[in-house]
Amino acid sequence: MFFPAIVMDHLPLNTLDDEFATNLACAVCGEITLAVVHVEDLPDYVKCTNCESAFILSQGAHWAMFGSISSDYPRTEKTVLKRWTTLEAVQAMANSERAAEVDALPSEGADLSSDSTPPFGIGGDSPELFDSEQAPTAPFGLGELDDFVADSANGSLDPAPMTFEPLEEIADVSEPEPGQRYVVTLAQKTAVLPSERCAHCLRRPAPRKLLVHHGPDPNHGYRVPLCQSCHKRASARSEEQVTAKLIAHLSAVLIAGLLVVGALAAGWVDITDIGARDLLLIATLGLAGYGLPAVLLLGRSSRLPPSEDTRFVRSTLRIWENEALAFGWRNRGYAELFLTANRDLMLGKLMPITEDDPQGS
Asked: Are 185 and 284 contained in the same domain?
């Protein structure tokens, strides 16, 4: 269940066993260099001795909050630092950022032997967890974790995970690029869609999901998690649709009024002595005069094309079926989450493709 049933799930876990970090890979750099740090009067936290990233866990261990993230991952740091999130989501973002940096490296003819600094902060001599002469400190800065624990104790913290910034503030991090998709091909025609992140922008998803149809049955498809902002974008009407809907209602009201006035002019209703039959006739003419034109005109307005932004979000997933089933995601981070959730069924590897229509169909 994504939304916690109790407030305690979003309070920090005070005590961690040292064995927790044994053979556990760092969600940021991917190295198995994690260690549990015990700080007096503060919750225990986990620190990577390779990339210096550190995080605390929530009670129940469903959530993690990073107090520091390696500067080699600036986009991941901007997105998740000091927010409740999941280790899987951090891993997907860091993998995406690391893959982009790998693509930018020279593929041949480059002499890297003279560079004493390993790429991405991976490898080399692992720094000590903390200096033997100095007690460890929490990774949140002076006083920040103390304030966090105090606010947790008096109930002033919101029990829900912290929300992300508005879309325009992190568009460079989470908004997928038009025309790009990342395809995961599965051996069978069933798949698990991770529900802890919005498939389009990786924010916290809303309860409602977007149904992406697949196959001839209009009721069959995959329910894709979207955040509240992306849901609004996916259901937004274009200016042409809004105008057409307004014209449809006004036209229907006008037709209903003309029918009622026509009935009065024809003497079908005696306005000097209106009885129950006359009221029923006026109501019938009004409802018929409004309802039938409204249904016809609104049906035409609904067939108008949506805006480019609406089409872009609605087409965040495309599905191709042949002998296997291929899922094309706009967001690379979510594609990697999807790949991880369906790794046993995967054929080949994550494949980036370019679409002819950047906004989707």
From this structure: no
